[in-house]
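Hi V.,

You were right to ask for the full record rather than a summary. Here it is.
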Amino acid sequence: MTTKITRDVIESYLNCKYKGNLKLNSQQGTKSDYEILLTEIRAEVRFAAINWILTHHAGEEIPRNIPLTASALKQGASLLLDATLEDGLVSLHFDGLKKVAGPSELGDYHYVPMIFQEGHRIGGTHRLLLEFHGLLLSRIQGRTPALGIIWHGPDCKATKVRMNPDLRTVERHLRELKETPLSGSQPRLILNDHCSVCEFRQRCQTQAVQEDNISLLRGIGEKEITAYARKGILTVTQLAHTFRPRRKPKRAKQYSKKRYHSLQALAIRDKRIYVFGTPEITTSSVTIYLDVESTSQDGFVYLIGMIAVENGTEKRYSLWADNQEQECSIFEQFLALVSQYEDFLVFSYGSYEKAFLKRMRRQAKRKTLVDKVLERLVNTLSLVYSHIYFPTYSNGLKDIGGYLGCSWTEADASGIQSMVWRMRWESTHDEAWKHTLLTYNLEDCAALKKVTGLIHAVAATNSLGSGPLTIEDKAVPVSRVQDVDKLANERKWGRVNFYHPDFEYINNCAYFDYQRDRVFIRTSRTLKRNKAKRARGGNRQLRVTKRLQIVSSSCPFCKGKEITTAAEGKLPPIRKPGVKRAYDLVFSAGAIKRKVIEVRTSVHQCLKCGQEFIPEEYERLDKHFHGLKSWAMYQHVAHRLSLGTIQGMIEEFFGVHISRSEIHMVKSVMARYYRATYGNLLAKILAGNLLHVDETEVKLQKGKGYVWVFTNLEEVVFMYRPTREGDFLKELLKDFHGVLVSDFYVAYDSLDCPQQKCLIHLMRDMNQELLNNPYDEELKSITGPFGTLLRAVVVTVDEHGLKRRYLQRHEGEISGFFQRIKGETFHSDAAEALRERLLKYQDKLFTFIQYDGVPWNNNNAENAIKRFAYYREDTVGTMKEAGLSDYLVLLSICHTCRYKGVSFLKFLLSREKDVDVFCEGKRTKRRSPTIEVYPKGFISSHFRTREKARLEKVQGKVSETPDEAIEQTAQPTADGTAEPIQ
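Predicted structure:
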């Protein structure tokens, strides 16, 4: 027999579709104490609300217990109570209605619904229930109310709740409720969080166990269950066969393990505990097991239970509060008990105890002690979640404790039931309820102690294999995951921690390089000859192709012009600075030639002030000139060669040895040199009328970040950001007035500029939904016409290009498509979700037809970000933020040259800083400088001398501009000379 759709049915359906179907078929279960208590509280809220309404509207006529019809509403009463709406299969009771201003079919007023609710807080279910009332009310008065009123909580507070103006979701739920009895099929049974208080909990649990239902595993959501169902995985046993652990990433320093539902299913199937990895848990002479209980309404902690174990001696404490005013008192008692111990650890099960301690710290007198407790607080549940898989359907303390042999005096003991006991005590002050709570709380602490003891035993036994583990005289079967699948063995590579120091010494003597250089060389002539050759080698063996002498004509201290040098014979050669060499590459039409420059100077003395100095140009001489740096960065950026590979290529091809630190400095110097070019590219992009944007994740040595790309049709700029948050976009794009082309990331939605969403992204998402729902005809009824519409537009683009005068012919078709789907509702969740998405972005999907030259996809940004992704694959976890930022500067210029069709290498060699000037061939031809010096801050330790401390005080000669490398020619100047040696 099918009953009418009542409020009880609707609430049941919103909590669980399976329960709603049972209610529709007049099924009755055994209500839990908690449900009975909620019913009583709702009655109290109802009584208090009606009493308040009648008191504050005394003298007014308030109709009660009437049928809700249009004629009744046209009477114009300011309030109505207990009205019932009959609409076919629906019989919905309205707790109340309130008259508000606003035109409707009733006149210049309409009504908003009121409901009485027992909950202290308003949740999503309450909002949907209010929207159900608003939907049915709108059919009578001809207007959907914009808000509703919920009376709730022990204080009977009235809260206005704004309702969604689009009630299609509620309409779909109502249609499903009406059609479920007619279809003859039941919704699929999926256990959820509501099961703990549901009247059908025992019935559904029994059915789920018989079916081996995959929803028995707590923590697995409905979306995941649906995804498993598409693969044919419907039971816990089937899921157990899918477990395959992943290896730890090679470069990951901190690898946080996820919770494998398949391993949980495997533990249930095999009826044994599985250990994944090794839990890290500290020990102490005193261990305290803490559990607190709080009320459901006010949320204050009324009971603190703890078991303290010291040298095998166990002490139990229960700290009780009659009311909220005594909460601080029992907390101070807790601190007094803890302060007795110097060395202790506190264990809790879950994060509620930590949140309680943090909340009480604000009003505690001994904050230092609270900080100490927080520092030594260990969440046992977090260890279980990461490493321990019990053969239970959930990680709840009752399930795991019950498996380990713990028991509770009350058969229905649970956190929800404890709330019932507390409220019974508050209403009666019967000591029996208090004793029940004290017993239950200490039994939770005892269960926590037993679970923590097992984790201690697992952590202490590093070489644990398959077999039983004894916990308090109970044999528990425990296995490591390595016994199930060798893929779980994380120690495949890397340094081994040896137990004996002798083993470590022997292992160090067995390394390949060590043996070749220390052992094999004594018996192999080839190895001995190679080592001697390497020792004789080096850049000093290279033939010098040019010699230069640096002479300064002014004093850096007093700016005097009377300078003498040891080379002139007027100054005793007390100190002689060493001769330096610099290296460069000279490019011709058919070859690349090495160039070795030898640079000399001598000690200078100012005859005016008597100071001795060495020219700063010599101290800051760049060891590698622009041609060599350009070739290296071209290989690194354009061809994605690693700096180590480039280092080897330079030595192999040109015979120049360059150290690892020097090759990294080359990248920094070049990035600094072209920083102004990078800024000009970004400014030009933001000043244009088109901007493509995209982002991707990158893993660094410490943590991760995101690389954003901004591009138009010619310029590209890459930018690093530590997070994916898009707040910086508002400031960056505040002066941008063109069209932004992007994907559907929500950070772009708040930007104040015309936007074009990438239709390729949308089409791919549609295609995936079709593959996931191949028999969804409603979904096809949306995607089919959309594909036809988009194809017609793309054909026009192919024929005439991105020109507005041709594309605007499709405006009518686009408008008609959105008008059609706007007036439809769908049964299918996938179809309804797609319809809502299309309507949400309808003003941003076809923006390109209103402009000239605006693409309908984000391929420009995706193509650019793909180039960085290729580089990212080979540098996972090795980059630092500074090095990545330098790389992105050069990458931006490289891809700008690529988009403009010019050579990135030739641009670097030209020394030009404006890409457009280089492209137009209008650059001023400059003679290649003979001397190059490091910018400020880039003096290599390899070139430092004893004069560095004094030279840092020198002012004037070197530019302070950080973005430009300083270049000095070898021609005499007014303030200094660089004279070639004849």
